[in-house]
Amino acid sequence: MRILLIGASGTLGAAVGATLAGRGHELVTVGRTAGDLRYDITEPGAIARLYAAAGPVDAVVSTAGDVPFKPFGELTTDHYRAAFEGKVLSQVELVSQGLAHVAERSSFTLIGGVLSREPIVTGSAASMANGAVEAFVRAAAIEIAPRRVNAVSPTVFTESLAEYGDYFPGFPPVDLADVAQAYVRSVEGAGTGQVYVL
């Protein structure tokens, strides 16, 4: 398959990219500052230009989504708007605009996260965004067939515990290799409207 990989240079994106490439897929990598194509998918109009530059693809995989982390009392409307635009609207637009550019039986795989179901201190904007992405996947799936859409919803990565572990006390971590396999399941499998929880 020819796969458009968003966020390919990040921690998760690199692991997913290596796994998909190792399975024989052709990748078109996308990032703000690195990759085959350079686009900020939160910028208005960037997604249309991205699809025009990428050409036909069989799957779209997103591993990127920016959200602010702050104590609840410090979060403003602008922070929540940034979380919505950075993780929700950007991925919704990947699907919405992508329908005209992908193969008839293509798939979209989006990124959610554990905070949709297990909140942490400073994470209410992220919880909102993750929950919205995962709800969108379930709803969109019933309308875009035969194209498919799923989300991967991991907890904190084992490889990131040194940096982020203190924010996730008692959360069992997940290896990046296992998260990458959830992306394989979404891309190569037949499921749609699924949230793969790790």
Automatic annotation (TrEMBL):
Coiled coil: none annotated. SUPFAM superfamilies: NAD(P)-binding Rossmann-fold domains. InterPro entries: NAD(P)-bd_dom_sf, SDR_DHRS6-like, SDR_fam. Keywords: Oxidoreductase. The keyword tRNA processing does not apply. It comes from the Bacteria. One of its GO terms (molecular function) is oxidoreductase activity. Belongs to the short-chain dehydrogenases/reductases (SDR) family. This is Short chain dehydrogenase. It comes from Antribacter soli.
